[in-house]
Every structure is written in structure tokens, then in C-alpha cells.
Amino acid sequence: MEYKECRTFEHGFLKFLFAPALGRGIGAALLNACEQQLQVERIRLCVRYSNTPAIRLYQQQGYTRIDAWRRYYQDGEDAIVFEKVI
Questions:
Q1: Which SS3 state, helix, strand or coil, does residue 34 take?
Q2: Who has greater pLDDT, 65 or 21?
Q3: 3-state class of 15 per DSSP?
Q4: Which DSSP helix (H) or strand (E) runs through 55?
Q5: CB neighbours of 46 closer than 8 A, spacing ≥ 6?
Q6: What's the confidence (pLDDT) of residue 22?
Q7: What does the domain layout of the chain look like in residue ranges?
Q8: What per-residue confidence (pLDDT) applies to 55?
Q9: Alpha-carbon gap, residue 27 to 62, rounded angstroms
Q10: Greatest CA separation for the chain
Q11: How far is CA 83 from the centre of its chain?
């Protein structure tokens, strides 16, 4: 199965969203469940510039773009850094 990977900066938490789940609301439900379990004031995450569905999801869930990291991924693609204050 294909997956998209997103890592948070602070806790080393990995979240994988499998391709068959895309567009079914499962990503939003998983993201909300993770946010409720984390006892932090803010969450930061990164996403590939090319991952439009994930960017849309994070923006819909209240994340704000705060930075961009050039050549973050092993293949050289840049990352967009998002943050949400809880």
C-alpha cells in the first residue's frame, strides 16, 4: 500500500495515511484523535509541497503555514511547515 508520511518536530510522532483512506474523512478523524491525545500547547508538522490533499486537510483543521524547509525530503523536495495552537 502507498502512504504519505508526516512527522511532528517535538515528539517524533509518525502518522501514516494510507491511499485507500484518502477523501473519506479518515485523515481528519485521525488528526483530531492525535491532537486530543497530545498534551501540548502547539503542534507543528511538515508536509511535501506536492501533497495537496494533506495541505488542504491541515488548513481545514486550523493549521497555519509558518515556514518552508528547502530540500527537506531525501529526494530533494521542499517541505511546508504548519503549526496549530491548541
A1: helix
A2: 65
A3: strand
A4: helix 52-60
A5: 6, 7, 9, 69, 72, 79, 80, 81, 82
A6: 66
A7: 3-85
A8: 94
A9: 14
A10: 34
A11: 9
**What are the C-alpha distances in Å from 1 to residues 7, 20, 68?**
19, 8, 28
Distances (CA, A) of 72 to 7, 22, 28, 32, 47: 12, 24, 24, 25, 10
Please name the residues in contact with 11: beta carbons below 8 A apart, sequence gap of 6 or more. Answer: 38, 40
The Cα–Cα gap between 67 and 26 comes to 26
Class of domain 3-85 (CATH, top level): alpha beta
Task: Give the number of residues written for the chain.
Answer: 86
- Give the model's pLDDT for residue 20: 59
List, for residues 5-60, the tens digit of each pLDDT value: 444 444 444 445 555 566 778 788 888 888 888 888 999 999 999 989 889 999 99
For the whole model, what pTM was predicted? Answer: 0.73
